[in-house]
What we know:
Elements: E1 4-13, E2 16-21, E3 24-29, H1 32-35, E4 44-53, E5 58-63, H2 66-75, H3 83-92, H4 95-103, H5 107-111, H6 118-129, H7 156-166, H8 171-180, H9 188-199
Antiparallel strand pairs: 1-2, 1-4, 2-3, 4-5
Amino acid sequence: MIGFLRGKLVHKAPPFLVLDVQGVGYEVEAPMTTFYDLPAINEEIKLHTHLVVREDAHILFGFSTEADRTLFRTLIKVNGVGPKLALTILSGQSAEEFHRCIHDNDTQALVRLPGVGKKTAERLIIEMRDRLPGLGDSVMTSNSDTGLATPTIGNPKQEAISALCSLGYKPLDAGKMVQNIGAEGKSCEDIIRRALQGAIR
C-alpha cells in the first residue's frame, strides 16, 4: 500500500493530477478540496494516498489532508458507495460540512450532490453516524505541506465544466452552473468551488 507521495506537481486537470516522484510520474485522482490547496506547477507537494485495485486498473487517490483520506476510506465502506461517489461527496462538501449533514440528519444537502439519491443519503446518515466519531478532531486539521491554488493552463471555464462532468454532473447542467457564477477572470479551481457552492445551497 502506498501511504503517501511527496514530489513535484507537474500536471493538474481536475479530477486528475500527476506527481513526479524521483522521475516516476504518478497519476492521481483527487477531490476538489485537494485541488483548492494545490501549489503552482513544478512545486513540491505531499499527498496522503489510497490505492484501489480492480481487475482492469490500479487507481491511486490523493488527499491534501489525512482527515479527507480517512473520510474517503470510511465512505467506500458504505453499501452502494464506491470510490467515484466518495470523491464526488468530498468534492461537493468539506469534511466539516459532511459531518454536519450526518449529525443533523440533513438528507436535503446530501441529495444535491450528483449521484446521491434520497435512499443513498438516508443510508449514508444511518451507516456513517456510528463511524464518524472515530475520525475525532482530525477533521479540523489542515495540511501545512500545501500552498495556494493557482490557475491551470488553458481555458479555465472549459476545464471547470469538464471537471464538473467528471464529478457526475450532466454537461448541460455543468455549463449552466459555470455560467451562473460569472467565471470571467477566475481560475479553474475557483470556478469549480463557486459552482459547487451554488449547487448545494
